[in-house]
Design goal:
Blueprint (H helix, E strand, L loop, with lengths): L5 E11 L4 E11 L5 H13 L5 E3 L11 E4 L5 E7 L4 H10 E9 L1 H15 L5 E6 L1 H10 L3 E9 L2 E6 L2 E5 L1 E5 L4
Parallel strand pairs: 1-8, 5-6, 6-7
Antiparallel strand pairs: 1-2, 3-4, 4-5, 7-11, 8-9, 9-10
Length: 182
């Protein structure tokens, strides 16, 4: 019998002073059986960094034709495509062609660096693609914050991202390797 997803619930309070976005949102996140806590928490971070009412989690790992998160407009066009990991060239192209804007969060220092060396020239072809790297330390800290029921507070100011849960507070180390043309 196939394993089922583990359900996590997060009450998210977001104060993004850089973009004047202030939200309180309840999120329900399904952790795929093969997904790590780090990766699942990174999906929440990706949501917080791009938050708005239309940004939704997709079936992710369960559906090859969908990103981890997307924002669609009322005509069902993909405004924003957000993926995680180290996709192949075909997936990079799909994200950049199907989404008006595409964002990728890479992680795992050794794997991500090797991936970037191999795919940088391909990624740079797409003016609508932003590639971010999340440090190993941040990924470990995210996993340590994971609980089945969470209260998370994100504070974003001057490009710095802070995440608090209870007494714990961490500054997220996310660097941009490629910025989309505006």
């Amino acid at each position: 019998m196939a394993q089922k997803a583990t359900i996590f619930k997060a009450e998210v309070n977001l104060a993004n002073m850089d973009q004047d976005i202030y939200l309180d949102q309840n999120l329900t996140i399904a952790q795929h059986p093969s997904e790590t806590l780090q990766r699942m928490m990174l999906r929440i971070v990706a949501w917080a960094l791009h938050a708005n009412e239309q940004l939704t989690f997709t079936k992710g790992l369960c559906e090859e034709d969908e990103p981890e998160l997307w924002q669609k407009n009322y005509s069902d066009e993909i405004e924003l495509w957000i993926d995680l990991g180290t996709p192949d060239e075909k997936r990079i192209k799909k994200a950049s062609v199907r989404g008006k804007q595409a964002v990728l969060f890479t992680y795992g220092q050794n794997v991500a660096n090797a991936w970037w060396k191999q795919h940088e020239s391909v990624a740079r072809k797409y003016n609508n693609l932003t590639v971010n790297f999340v440090s190993d330390e941040t990924m470990e800290q995210l996993a340590a914050l994971a609980q089945r029921t969470m209260q998370l507070q994100f504070s974003i100011s001057d490009g710095d991202v802070w995440l608090s849960s209870g007494e714990e507070s961490i500054q997220l180390d996310i660097s941009c390797w490629q910025e989309a043309a505006q």
